[in-house]
Amino acid sequence: MTTASAPGKIILFGEHAVVSGVTALGGAIDLRAKVTVQDLSGSVLIKTKELTLQGFSLDLTSGRLESAQAAHATRYISAVLREFDVKDIQVCIDSSLPLAAGLGSSACIVVAAVAAISAHHGLCLSLREIAEISYRLEKKVQQGLGSPMDTALATYGGYLQISQDIKPIDLPPLEMVVGYTKMPHDTKSEVEKVQDLKKRYFDLVDPIFQAIGALSEKAVPLIREHNHADLGRLMNVNHGLLMALGVSSRELDELVYAATGAGGAFGAKLTGAGGGGCMIALPGHAGVDALMVALRQARGVPFKVVTGCEGVRLEGDL
Ligand code: PMV
Q1: Protein residue with its CA nearest to atom 14 in ligand 1
Q2: Contact at 8 Å (CB) between 14 and 60?
């Protein structure tokens, strides 16, 4: 039996602009997906314990599926099994991340599955190989545009600045609060919407992308210097620019206003593709608990996260 785990992520600055090669800044978080594989003769079975709080199992041999939600995760696991030409196996997923919420749930499942399945079959892949295979598989399943942000963060952990290439940056951890709208989002359609806007109004959208890229750069020294008041201001600016691109929603905006209003956050913004999913807030002087209460009152599901956490790791043979 072999187990690997990989972290989810938040995008601190730069979503959407990164698709056009502009700098973004993301951090791995302390919520992880764990994938365990073991030999199972004559069958290919995929099981989950805690995905969107509903367990399911899928027998690929018989095609029996116990939940519609399952289709999402199993598409990724099936792609990894095909990549390594693996049969006679049981794959168990144990994830503490909500699906389709912008926290990189599919990337960490792919990355943990690539690490666990390759190690189980005696392959010793480098982190770079795990990141490259995972990005290729995730992109294939999603059939869309997309940056390597999620799979890179799930692999390397820490903080990454992503533009044309992937650059790890050493920064202190940040305690943030995530507010989940409970509305799933569709990354592909949000990305297509923004790219279409850019195509039609390049002279308007390109400066917005450039401003977002500048925010991703300016945030780095602020995080290093623990200047949370200014960092929060930049988050608010980034949220405004994402609203201008049309990827926020009423639910996301309500959580952002609740966070910076009653919640006393230094700043807040949507994270990920938008249209639903999650926002993030940087706790202010009122503290984390006041922020959590404000987000709950605005009908969000708040949870604390710490950024800059460890990337994929083998949990060892159990
Ligand atoms: O929704 P998520 O977490 O997959 O974030 C997508 C981030 C985008 O910049 C919109 C797309 C990408 O691939 O970088």
Answers
A1: 147
A2: no
Count the Cβ atoms, other than its own, within 10 Å of residue 1. Answer: 14
**Cβ atoms of residues 2 and 314 within 8 Å:** yes
Of ligand 1's listed atoms, the one at least distance from the Cα of 145 is 13
Phi first, then psi: give them for residue 84, nearest 5 degrees: -100, 5
Site to substitute for ligand 1 among 29, 31, 141, 187, most atoms within 8 A of C-beta: 187
More confident residue, 60 or 274: 274
If residue 46 lies in a helix (H) or strand (E), which one and from where to where?
strand 44-51
Q: Look up residue 198 and give its two tokens.
A: 């850019």
- DSSP SS3 for 112: helix
Spacing, Cα 318 to ligand 1 middle (Å): 34
Alpha-helical segments (H) within 27-104: 70-83
The whole-angstrom separation of Cα 18 and Cα 292 is 29
Is residue 76 within 8 Å of 120, Cβ to Cβ?
no
Region of residue 75 (left: phi > 0; alpha: psi -120 to 50; beta: else): alpha
Could you tell me whether strands 89-95 and 44-51 are parallel, antiparallel, or unpaired per DSSP bridges? parallel
Assess whether 170 carries a catalytic annotation. no
Q: Which of 10, 15, 198 to mutate to test the pocket of ligand 1 (most atoms within 8 A of CB)?
A: 15
251-270 tens-digit pLDDT: 999 999 999 999 999 999 99
Short-list 285, 9, 247, 228, CA closest to 138: 9
146 within ligand 1 shell (Cβ under 6 A): yes
- Three-state SS for 73-137 is HHHHHHHHHHHCCCCCEEEEEEECCCCCCCCCHHHHHHHHHHHHHHHHCCCCCCHHHHHHHHHHH
Q: Specify the DSSP class assigned to residue 307.
A: B
Please report which confidence band the pLDDT of residue 67 belongs to, taking 50, 70 and 90 as the band edges. Answer: low
Rounded to whole angstroms, the Cα distance separating 223 from 260 reads 19
Q: Dihedral sign for Cα 277, 231, 150, 314, please.
A: negative
